[in-house]
Each structure stands twice: as C-alpha cells, then as structure tokens.
Amino acid sequence: CEEDCLSYFKDLNTCKVAGDIFQDNAILSNPVAGLMVGILVTVLVQSSSTSTSIIVSLVSSGLLEVKSAVPIIMGSNIGTSVTNTIVALMQAGERNEFKRAFAGATIHDCFNWLSVLVLLPLEVASGLVSYLAKVTVSSFQLHSGQEAPELLKTLTEPLTRLIIQLDKSVITAIALGDESMRNHSLVKVWCKSSSFVSSVNVTAAATQNCSSELHCGKDSDLTWITQNITSQINTEKCRHLFVDSGLSDLAVGLILLASSLMVLCTCLLLIVKVLNSLLKGQVAKVIQRVINTDFPFPFGWLSGYLAMLMGAGMTFIIQSSSVFTSAMTPLIGIGVISLNRAYPLTLGSNIGTTTTAILAALASPREKLPAACQIALCHFYFNIFGILLWYPVPFTRLPIRMASALGERTAKYRWFAVLYLLVCFLVLPCLVFGISLAGWQAMVGMGAPFAALTIFVLLVNLMQSHSPTHLPKTLRSWDFLPQWMHSLKPLDKLITKTTALCCSPARLNDPDVVVVTPDTTNIKPESKKQTQQWYDNPALSLPEEISSEPRVFRLRGLERCNSTPL
C-alpha cells in the first residue's frame, strides 16, 4: 500500500515535468542523461517494475524512441536497489547484523553499477543489446493482447482507492502535450458520468443548400441547421480522502509521501523485529542449513543457478524485485542467508522483474507492439549479459567482494550508510545529469580527469596490496597525503563530536543514568593512547592488554540484569 502511495506522489508532482522531458528527445538522446533519469525516477517510485512499465508505455505511445529508452532501462536497474539499502538501515542497532545486512543490500548496487559501466559504452558504440532484442522480436509472430493483472495491485487497490484516486485522462493529456490540461487537478473528483444528447439549431452560411439536408430550414434571410451535441454530466462523486479537501496537488502529494514513508519505516522495523524473534535457535539453524547448502560434488555449481531460478520465480509471482530483495535483507542480517547465496537470489530477482515489462509490452497497440517488446527485451538482455559477466566464473564475482568491503566500512562508521545512500542515489545522479545537459564537451572535460584519477588510485591500491616493491617509496602508502584525503577518521571525529554535543548533555542530566568511568591509573601510556582511539571510534577493537571497560551508560535498577549498555 505504501508503494502505491509513493507512486501516486510521483504521478501528482512529476508528470507535468516528465511530459516536457519526454517531449524533448534532445535531452534523452544523451545516454548518460538517460541513465541518470532512469535512476532518479526509479528512486522516486522505488520499483524497477513500475519504472520500466512506464518506459514501455512511453515507447508504445511513440513519445520515446527505443535507442533513447535503453539507458533509462539500465538506470532503473540501479535505482531499484535503494529500497533494500534503506531496509538495511533498520538493523543499524547491532553492528554485526548491520554489516551483513548492508553488504547483502549493496551487492545489488555493485552488480548493477558494474554491468552499466561495461554494457552502456558497448551499447552506445555497437547497439548490441537493442539489436539482439530487435532480432528476437522479428523472429516471433506477436499479437496485441490484454494487460496482465498485477497480484500486489489487486490486493492493495481496494484500500488505496479509499485514500486517493487520480484522473488518468489528465495525466495522459499532459504527457501528450495538451497545454489546456496543465491547470487541471490530478485528483479525481467525479467517478461516474452520463452522456446527454441535445439538438441545437446552428446558423449556416447563406449559400447552404437546404434541399440536401435532413434538418435544415430557412427563416427569412437566415439558414439554420439542426445539430446533435453530446455533453457529459457528472452524476456521482468519488469516495476517497481528498475528494473535497480543496488542497493543491503539491500539498496532497507531500501528505501522501510523508504518510507512506512513515508506514514503510514502521513496517520495516516490525519485519526486522519479527524475524529476529522467530528465526532464532534451532529454527534459524535448520533454515540456514537448507538455504545455504550446496549440492554434493561434482554438482555443487548448480546450487547458485537453482537459487537464481528461485529468485526469478518469486519475483515473477509478486512482480516486484524491490519487495523480494527487501524481504531478503533482514534474513541476511540475522545470518539465515549467506552473502554468497544472496548473490544468485538477487540476480534471479533481476531476471524475474523483467517479466513485468514484457507483459506490459504485450498489451501495446498493434502498430507499436514491436517497439514496445523490443525495449522490454532490452531490459531482459541487459540482466542476462550482466550475469554472464559477473557470475559464472568465481574470479569475476566482484560484487560479492565489493559488498563485503562496504559492509566492513559501514560496521566501522555507521554514518557511512546514510552518506552512501545520499551520494549514490541522489547527489551523483543529479550532478552527472546536470553536467550532461551542458553537452559532450563539458562531460568529457570533467569526466575524463575524474575517470583517469579513479583508475590511477585503483591501480596503486592494487599494487600496494600485492607488490608494493614495484612502486616508488612515496606511493607505497598514502601517508604523504593529508589524513582527510585517505581516511574517514577526521570526518568520523567531526560527526562523533557533533552528535555528542547534541545527545550528551541531555543524557548526563538524566537522573536515571549512571556514568561508569574506567580506572586508567594502571594503564600504560601506549594503552591510554589506544583507549583514546577507541573512544574516537567505538568500532576499533581494544587490544587484549587493556582490561578496563569503556565508558558506558547504565540505567539505575538494572545492575543485576544482563542488559546491553546504552
């Protein structure tokens, strides 16, 4: 239900802008701009199934060309992973669970970004993905059909119709460029109307020949013709919360956005709590053994492909990869599903979500059916090529190693997860989209130095870990740079001090809080220095020789309980 409310917010507040964007194909002719548009739109609706269905509908209506739609499809694959990354934040209370959950959520991001970095330049240079989709469509005798029902919408629509209903005729007219509909409200007020036919006498030209007309006459010097005029009369109002609210579309959209996000976060917290309470002890061990066990040798390699089929099948049933991967993220956090098993399940979910776009394409008009099916199959082939690049050979499974590194970084600095979300799904797409609007010259001028610097840093890091002797002494470590350029510790200290200023006074003045300060009189100076480092960042592990406990807060009356320090 909250996903539908989020999509309603998108329709209320972005369709007027989207109409202008999609009418101006000069913007989307730039593949980088199209990629960023796909990311941002999918972040708004939090479902790649929804965004790809919108793109297929735009292609089938002739508003968007297939060549321009392919990068948007690739961007929708990246944007859909924002939901399960948000779900991972709900497990930030326990460090190890948060590390596993964030790694399981970002493995989807890493796969999609790596696939786009390889396949988007290949598509721009050769058109491989769109060509294969075109050949596939031409080899089948396709006929237009009815749109397939959506299971989740069938379950949630009775409730969402009581909250908000949209006038889709206004949305369609705006997207088609009808300027007269721009000032019409998108909130639907009248649900039933009837047609009324009336006869009106209309004055005709003086040269009109009345002998050839059935309803024609002359009155002195005037010639008149009787015409039938059909008018629509509204008979019944809709029944939803905003039918007579008098609020603007923006106000209604913001109310729906706030309420839906509140419901979404509440549901996510409840899911995590329920799973933590149910999947413990022997139950967790049994489930973990069943899901993570491989087939006996020599058929162990088939286990991952079977997991792909399971992920594709589950996503096809619920028609939403966001729902499937979000439900899987808490299970990864509590250790029921391993990261190695979550990877093929996520890849299978990517395949399953393409069926929604294919079913939407099959409902297109006959004249636009080939183009709609072509762009839907581009989504399918993009995910297939991504799997071929990053799964069959164990050495090429880079997303697992990248996600594990992100999980370790997030466990050490928990604020890094929020920074990652803002940069990858908001700041970076908006920045690149703005630069891409300036033209290829601006993109090359700013992108080429950044890409060269990134490649150089990656190569130096690789040589530092494997063969540092082949590097100059200066480059064998990054210590010659300022600390803020090669470490997150300065930023972590700043954030820690900022949060301490906000939280410590209120907590220290609380009469129910007892401050337990360790005795450091017998600790060596080196150990005191390490203890101070531990204070600066609690994720750093203390050495074994430090026997004193860190400064913690305990509630009065719980001294005998086995309670977790706050």
From TrEMBL:
Q: How does it sit in the membrane?
A: Multi-pass membrane protein
- The main location class comes to membrane
GO molecular-function terms, A-Z: sodium:phosphate symporter activity
Q: Which Pfam families does the annotation name?
A: Na_Pi_cotrans
Catalytic reaction annotation: 3 Na(+)(out) + phosphate(out) = 3 Na(+)(in) + phosphate(in)
Q: NCBIfam families from the entry?
A: 2a58, Na_Pi_symport
Q: Which GO terms describe its cellular component?
A: apical plasma membrane; brush border; vesicle
Keyword Transport on entry: yes
Tell me what this protein is called. Answer: Sodium-dependent phosphate transport protein 2A
Biological process (GO) annotations? intracellular phosphate ion homeostasis; sodium-dependent phosphate transport
State the InterPro entries in the record. Answer: Na/Pi_transpt (IPR003841)
